[in-house]
Amino acid sequence: MAALLAPRLAHFAAVARHEHVTRAAAELGVPQSTLSRSVARLEEELGVALLARHGRAVALTPAGRTFAEHAERALAEIVRAAETVRTDADPAAGRVAFGFLRTMGAETVPGLIRAFRADHPRVRFSLVQGYGEHMVERMREGELDLCLISPVPEAPDLVARRLDEQRLYLVVPEGHRLAGRRRVRLVEAAEEAFVMLEQGYGMRTLTEKLCARAGFRPRVAFEGEEPETLRGLVAAGLGVALLPPSTLPRPGVRELAVSAPRAVREIGVAWMAGRPDTRPVAAFKTFLLGRRGRLLTDTH
């Protein structure tokens, strides 16, 4: 029904506003005969008389008045939708829907956006923080244009590019037997209780893989959704954790470099294969790809 009615709504709405076929045809720039046939077909498809005709002048029937009110609202919504997508695609002032890992929200992402906006000051961002699987799902649903993600995904419907790597640290409480060290082998924490992110997070999978390489399976004491929550649990003496470096000083914990196995996580950018980019999205994607190897600032 929508496909049948949509082409005729503008014709009917103009006639309803003017209650005169000639003036409506002049507004739309179409022949009067075309306009009359279009409205007649609309009435035929609806099975309802919308107009009472008096030569070229017309009057709305009660059904026509009701339909005209809804048609005007529908047309206004279409105009707003068109304006929104045109604005979002504007190369100078468009919008980028950008997802990123929670651990990159304090410094890395604000720094990236600040640097990008130095050359594109009017581009707007819609920002979403999350974990990898969540962001990929939102890209598939069309809610995100691209995202910073770890691990770098492999899927036939995605394009992903590695940008950088980030060192991971063994986080222990102050006063812990290892707290006085600068570097440790991960196997030295084999008997410790671990606090970890929940299943589904890339850091959880990576922690388990690194522990396996070190020759042990971690004993999980607590699970959480936020790295800073895990640091708080560590500070409370409830376990140790393998985490990216903290962006802010955290009292009560020590972050120790891991000498073996090599403890890093890859950071990449991902987007949907075959989905056309607006010019702002294409510009930001090019910007990110141009920062390979220097995406992160590691102060450790």
Overall description:
The protein is α/β, with parallel strands linked by helices and 300 residues long. It is 40% helix and 25% strand. The strands form 4 sheets. It has a 5-stranded mixed beta sheet with strand order 4-3-5-13-6, sandwiched between helices. The protein has a 4-stranded mixed beta sheet with strand order 8-12-7-11, covered by helices on one side. Strands 1-2 form a two-stranded antiparallel sheet.
State the gist of this model.
The protein has 300 residues and is α/β, with parallel strands linked by helices.
Please tag this protein with its features:
four-stranded mixed beta sheet, 9 helices, single chain, 300 residues, alpha/beta, five-stranded mixed beta sheet
Detail the poorly predicted runs. Answer: none
What order do the SSEs take from the amino end to the carboxyl end, as H and E?
HHHEEHEHEHEEEEEHEHEEEH
> Order of strands in the sheet with the most strands?
4-3-5-13-6
User: Could you describe the largest sheet, including whether it forms a barrel?
Assistant: 5 strands, mixed
Q: What global shape is seen? A: elongated
Oligomer: single chain
Radius of gyration over all CA atoms, rounded: 30 Å
Number of helices: 9
Distance between the termini: 63 Å
How much of the polypeptide forms β-strand, as a percent range? 25-35%
Structural class: alpha/beta
